[in-house]
Amino acid sequence: MTPFIKEMLKQKPIFTETLGHRKFKFCLDQVTALGRLLPQATIILIVGPSNAGKSLLLACLADFLSREIFVDRGDGKIPVIGATAQISRETRTAPKYLYSKLLADIGSPLFDPSKIEQIRYSPSINHNETYLLTTLQNGIAVCGTRVVLVDEGNFLVRTKNEEFRSSLIESLKSLVMVDTTLCLCGGYEMAEAIFSRAHLAARKVVCHLEGYSDSVEDRLEWRSILASITESPKIRLAEKTLLQEHSDKLLWESHGVIGILERRLLRAVSLSVAEGSPITRDILEATAPSLREWKTIGNDIENGKKLLAAVGELAPAQTPSVSKSPSPKGRPGSRKRFDRRPRRAIPTIA
């Protein structure tokens, strides 16, 4: 198990010990099914709103692959590697940074900090992007790597420079090889960038971890989640029914996203501890999001849904139109026949 996977497996929900709620379980079944198939030269996109649990879903996939798919991996084989695309410059990640992190996770002696520490020698590393990519591809081939996981993939495409954006997206294509499956986890802007490139869009499989809506089914599931949180020993409520009574309001203000709800309750816990009392209605109200925050998250979710809906629609079959060249002068059809009594509509005067 690589350092990246070990770090990912440390992630746990804040107030619930299980991940059994319906939206998460649906996506988990999707990614585990893809994990069993391991489609070659394919990009699995885990997308959704911020704090929806995408990284947690990626961790569950990594755990599933390690425990059930690659049990007998053989000596020297590293079937799953990964990296987190952290911000390194201008709020985005350079391809060289990602390649270096993947080389460290695969155990390359020139990039793995633990091995450099053992030999007590820091070699001079060629940071040329072509060299890093070639070294990574060779390492993937030698170690029999089948799956490459990338968390926070939106940092790979976040730039205002369209030319540089194209080069960033092209760098992702280099990780999609014949025998490998690339799994990218990130926000809607990452999905938009992938959809905009035909050779990447054709390889994608989307797993959308969405929030809960105000439908009857979703509202019942939301109440079930709140009941589970109420039983958590990490939270102390003044009234046992407090969360249930505010269920619809919490659903609306959290946009149906579990992670946003958990962050809000975390603030409520900190306030209650500071005041030396359990969470009351006033404390719960004090942690409500600002209008600007609520609108920003809501706009991101709405734009993401529109993007996925547009991509999911099949364009109707169209017959190629043949442009008609104008008829040469003097031939039939070149001029409109003269009408001595044309029927003109009389304009209506308002």
Describe the protein's architecture and organization.
The chain has helices at 3-8, 22-37, 54-69, 95-105, 113-119, 129-142, 162-173, 188-195, 198-201, 216-230, 242-245, 247-253, 258-275, 281-286, 291-312, and strands at residues 42-47, 80-84, 147-151, 181-186, 204-208. The protein is α/β, with parallel strands linked by helices. It folds into 2 domains: 3-208, P-loop containing nucleotide triphosphate hydrolases (Rossmann fold, 3-Layer(aba) Sandwich); 216-292. The protein has a 5-stranded parallel beta sheet with strand order 2-3-4-1-5, with helices on both faces. It is globular and about 60 Å long.
Short description:
The chain is α/β, with parallel strands linked by helices. It has 15 helices and five strands.
